[in-house]
Write a structure and sequence with these properties.
EC number: 2.1.1.282
GO molecular function: methyltransferase activity
Number of helices: 7
Strand order of the largest sheet: 3-2-4-6-7
Oligomer: single chain
Number of domains: 1
CATH class: Alpha Beta
Region (Disordered): 178-235
Helix content: 25-40%
Order of helices and strands: HHEEEHEEHEEHHHE
CATH architecture: 2-Layer Sandwich
Domain tRNA wybutosine-synthesizing protein: 10-118
Strand content: 15-25%
Family: Belongs to the TYW3 family.
Amino acid sequence: MDRRAEFKRWKAQCLSKADFSRKGCVDEDVVEIVQLLNGREQFFTTSSCAGRIILLEQGMDSLEVQKQNCCWLLVSHKPCVKDDVIVALKKANGDAILKFEPLVLHVQCRQLQDAQILAVRSTHGLEVPLSHKGKLMVTEEYIDFLLKIANHKMEENKKRIERFYNCLQLALEKETTTTNSHPKEKIKEKNNSYKKKSNPGKAHDKCVTEENDKVLENDDDDDPGISVTIFPEDY
């Protein structure tokens, strides 16, 4: 079975599986992005999150926040109010941490050059400890202040998602037009993609990096096979 057929089979198998996320479905704010990527033969999404405000409780002896071993006291994909957090904090017996996590998008790509336009980087997260051994270490006024910051980041995150979708759509349309207009050049580019780093056009690069804080990445040492997975950094 050739690589293209193998990727197609793998994509169909993965997309047919049940959604085992906590929510059980794709977040509303990233539905269009997920549909856009899954509608292209060279991509499929493996997981996503539009962004969320969470309150985690970790063990009292743990020095690092590890969500796998934490109790989720509060999860919201919408702006939060202080009372929501105060009520959730009453359930904590260990160390409670308030976090804001921006867009997370995991995408499987058929080949390395496809992955270049989907390497996402974002740095507008938030992580603040609120209690220790069940004791609140900050004032309610400070919690209210933190939530204003988190809610602002949530709104900014939504705007970035919209800009990312528009630029991704433009980039994919441009790629399709280029492929249809210059099929021979495209084939030649694919054959040489592992010998020399590609140089995306300035307009495309500006759209993805400057407008959306997204970064195009390439690594000559990466395996160009279908096992290449692009994960966003700094989430």
